[in-house]
Design goal:
homodimer; about 250 residues; mainly alpha; Four Helix Bundle (Hemerythrin (Met), subunit A); 8 helices; transmembrane (chains A, B); transmembrane helix (chains A, B)
Chain lengths: ~250, ~250
């Protein structure tokens, strides 16, 4: 706690966080169930290599990215360095797992002789990756490395939060497009419109994705659930010195 | 101005608003171009009736709904009653035009003997309609009708803004799913992956939709572009009395 007073946790926050985790874990499990029941499971060879793609994206770009956004709301009473490092590490994990998913689909396309990057899903996906990588680099430079002044960090903070939320929303939208694409490539309109079990399961998965996104954004944006100003500013003012020496600049 | 001091407009705001309008008008025009060039145009009969659906949704649920969200940011110096009534009227227009689009697609399905509500796009679409209608009713009851106390309005305000933004995001996501669906029903994977002109145009339209959503949310959420607290509270405190008598309760 570093001698800082404990910040009280809003009464309803833990329930919303628990609900978000329930949604997130369910959507990952349901992605696995969809791939297992209707797509033959997962492997790094044969046609099954494609299936690595949706599973990695559900875990990385949806669940872990969403959880990374919540770190400052959930760990309100943890030391700021812990929270900040956890935030960065969750994003690195999300990006790494998503990269495996990206390699899987490009490798699968190459082996099958399919074209790359022709669909709206793929265009949005590449946009997400570029933005996510740039956001991580800029965020790292501003908040974890020395050099950026306190006022520069304060000014960048709002942009960092906005673009973080936007990239997350775009990730959820891209996942919905991908799900729809995978469904229509296999079922076509004819089977899809007969309420085939796979179609219904995928629709429910799509709604779960949207709900997870909605609950994460609710927790993130609810004004009275924001980390109190002083704690937030202290967290943002931590620089490389504080990482190594365990000290932090005082509030403004 | 009702004797209220003029609130200064942030220097960059007009440029962002102009950019959002450029994006919005371009996406509506491009939807028209897509339907005209590749889908035979628009009519309330034959197969062309379907085309009423995407055009109405682009105008109503995307462009007008987006603009309705921006009213409090754009008209910072207008009388609060004007701003509030404009906000409500834009939403009514958006909902009405979207309803025409909804009737068009159900009527088209009925005539062609197609199933209804089997796809993720349709599930999300119905969700958007229900949420949008409820949000409008609750918003109207709290902010334009007498009865709700000042404190009740203040407490509801954050939820109104969050759900407004969420419904808008869900509308954009649903439009992307619909665009993808219309594309894959016609082109299939084979033609889509050959970078057919219609596919490329629809992809660009999809990116435009996402960009319009992003710019609207940026303008809406940028902290220093919020309507100043006093003006905002006055706007929210307007009740039926102020609508009819041209008076408003003092700020708290």
């Amino acid at each position: 706690m570093e001698g800082r007073a404990t910040v009280s946790t809003p009464a309803a926050l833990p329930y919303y966080v628990a609900f978000s985790q329930l949604l997130g874990l369910t959507l990952v499990a349901m992605t696995g169930a969809w791939l297992g029941l209707y797509r033959g499971g997962i492997a790094w060879e044969s046609d099954l290599q494609f299936n690595v793609h949706p599973l990695c994206m559900a875990i990385g770009l949806i669940f872990l990215q969403g959880d990374a956004l919540l770190v400052y709301r959930v760990f309100r009473n943890e030391a700021k360095r812990t929270t900040k490092v956890l935030h960065g590490m969750l994003h690195v994990s999300a990006l790494t797992i998503a990269l495996v998913g990206l390699v899987a689909v490009f490798d699968y396309h190459r082996k099958k002789g399919y074209a790359d990057l022709y669909s709206l899903h793929s265009w949005c996906g590449i946009l997400v990756f570029v933005l996510y990588f740039v956001q991580w680099l800029v965020g790292f430079s501003f908040f974890l490395f020395p050099g950026a002044s306190f006022s520069l960090r304060s000014r960048y903070r709002a942009s960092h939060i906005f673009f973080g939320a936007t990239i997350f929303i775009l990730s959820v939208g891209t996942a919905l497009l991908g799900l729809k694409e995978a469904l229509l490539f296999k079922l076509g309109r004819a089977k899809y419109s007969l309420f085939e079990p796979e179609g219904v399961l995928a629709n429910v998965l799509g709604l779960l994705l949207a709900c997870f996104g909605g609950v994460v954004l609710y927790i993130l944006t609810r004004p009275d659930w924001k980390r109190p100003s002083q704690a937030e500013e202290q967290a943002l003012s931590m620089d490389f010195k504080t990482l190594t020496e365990g000290d932090s600049p005082g509030s403004q």
